[in-house]
Design a protein that fits this description.
Blueprint: H1 2-5, H2 9-31, H3 40-63, H4 67-94, H5 96-115, H6 121-128
Helix pairs in contact: 2-4, 3-4
Amino acid sequence: DLNTEIPDEEISNGLFESCALLKQISLVEEKFPDNKPKLKKLYEYYLPILINILGQYKDLQLANSSDNLAKTKDKLHKSIILINDAMKTIISTLCEDDMINLSADISTLEAILKKDGLAGDDMMKMKAGE
């Protein structure tokens, strides 16, 4: 709602990105519920502060058109970029442990298949009839 009430393209585009990132976080959270503790600060601290700032800005823009408001708009835009970057970092770290485990499992499978002569150089030699 705040996005539609703040008629500024830069801020609006930033908030559209914020919404897309939140949807992505929600999907990851749904598939990997063990990550909920990592999202606590986002949901309980960062986003409520952003929403509060947006609400204050919306009210101020209606009452004021001074240079201070232009400076505040610039700071708000930078804050939205900052929180979007933070959410991108959160997304990349949400599945970090799972990615490490997956990589280890793949390496283990490859090593076992090579050891049993079912993959790698030994397998190529068997196929070639050596």
